[in-house]
Amino acid sequence: MPDHTPRVVATDEARQLIDTLRAKHGPLMFHQSGGCCDGSSPMCYPQGEFMVGGSDVLLGDLEGCPFWIGEDQFAYWEHTQLVIDAVPGRGGAFSLDSAEGKRFLLRSRLYSDDEWANVGPVTKG
Questions:
Q1: What is the pLDDT of residues 49-106, one digit of tens each?
Q2: Which domains does the chain have, with CATH numbers?
Q3: Which DSSP symbol is given to 5?
Q4: Which of 1, 16, 29, 104 holds its CA 20 to 30 A away from the CA of 38?
């Protein structure tokens, strides 16, 4: 089975922040809800401390961390690859990045036709 085009990827800066958080907190998970304020940023939690719902969609693995997105947001972003970055600033109040002086930031890009033909599958919560 060929490797799929990932639906979510991390920049070098995000990988460094994930490594820092994993060293402090153990296994991690992400959730992107798409609400206003904190909900518009990818939220990082210790794995299992955020209860995903039946309408949440598992996009895939982000540096060894499951990455979930709300169903409504998935419908909006389905045709783009999510690129998780880390920038200076304070993260969401409940997100682990909030105390690190950096925050996760969602960027996106359209897939090429070849990438879209091989995009990875998703699973519902």
A1: 999 989 999 999 999 999 999 999 999 989 999 999 999 988 667 889 988 999 999 9
A2: 8-124 (2.60.300.12)
A3: B
A4: 16
- Would you state the structure tokens that stand for residue 91, as one six-digit string? 């993260």
Q: Residue 98 carries which DSSP code?
A: G
In this structure, which amino acid lies at residue 7?
R
Q: CA-based diameter of the chain, in Å? A: 41
What SS3 state is found at 26? Answer: coil
User: Six-digit token pair at 26?
Assistant: 């153990």
> What b-and-e string marks burial along 19-45, b requiring 16 or more CB atoms within 10 Å of the CB?
eebbeeeeebbbbbbbeeeeeebbbbb
